[in-house]
Amino acid sequence: MNRLINSIASPLLAVFSSLLVMSALNGCHSSDSKADKVVVAEEPEPTEVFSLRKDKLSSSLRIPGELVAYRDVDIYAKVSGFIKSIHADVGTEVKEGQLLALAEAPELNAQLAAAESRLKSQEALYIASKANYDRYVDAAKTPGTVAQSMIEQTLAKKESDYAQLQAAKASYKEVSDMRKYLEIRAPFSGVISLRNVSTGAYIGPSGKGSELPLFVLTEQKRLRLVVAVPEAYTGYVDQGDEVSFTVKAFPDRKFNGKVQRLAGALDKRLRSERTEVDVINNDRKLLPGMIAEVTVPLPTKSNTFVVPKSAVINSSTGVFIVKVVNQKAEWVAVQKGMEDGEKIEVFGDLKDGDQIITTATEEVRNGSPIRSVKPTT
Prior knowledge:
Number of helices: 3
Order of helices and strands: HEEEEEEEHHEEEEEEEEEEEEEEEE
Largest sheet: 6 strands, antiparallel
Helix content: 25-40%
Oligomer: single chain
Distance between the termini: 90 Å
């Protein structure tokens, strides 16, 4: 029996001893592994900085604009009458002074005849009074023949008749000029864009005949491109600057023009300045009323501090950039200017050569230490 027990126990003791040895070895290996996993403090990566320099930033502004006619007038009748003939229609290109329509007013002919009769009558009276005065003057050359009072009376009569003659001439000219208004003529060269009358229609300076203009005359060979430049960009736009624009009717064609007029004041509602660009339109492809997509160049007038957009922090308390001073971060409040792609103008307490962090975040607190820096190439 004892031999049987010993024969069974011996192998078990051998296995148990082997397990103890393996456990001890694993323990030693685990301790070595833990020792190997001790983290060694690494040096922080250098903070990228760049040296602040002044530069010129050139950008552009894309805003909508409207094409309007350089000159556009509604033509009304000056006197009452009826349209006798029409010599222009919608789309007719006319020259300055060209006859558009002819009206007739029989009463004006009667008034002109009456004014002409009064003029001739006054001419006759003046001729008679002048001749009478001249006779008295000649007779007065012989002393004692004519009293001085008679000469004075005839002189007064002559001057009175002369004044009446001038009044008759003015009256005749007035009626004659009124007759000229029966000829409706173009005040400038352009295109008839609207016609509201036909032959036989009544026209007049007031009442039913003047509800609508007879014609609308539009100058199309020269247009005004009207653009509302926002307040922030008014300092970059000057008279004579060239702008470009496109319209939906010709998406593959670019048009150009020069700034000719600046309002010099901001619109109180839009807070923008009305800017007008003259556009030559000899082929009349562009039409008044078209909406244009305008590109306005915005070159800076002088050198300013330009930084990458990544260097600007937009926090709840303001806009900042971070510069490195004596290995410490210093937040500097700035104002943003014009942008161009990934660059932006900044204005603040800055000077040439300041070391600015290229990629600034709010994690870099004001006054926090900056152990090492790496200049950006």
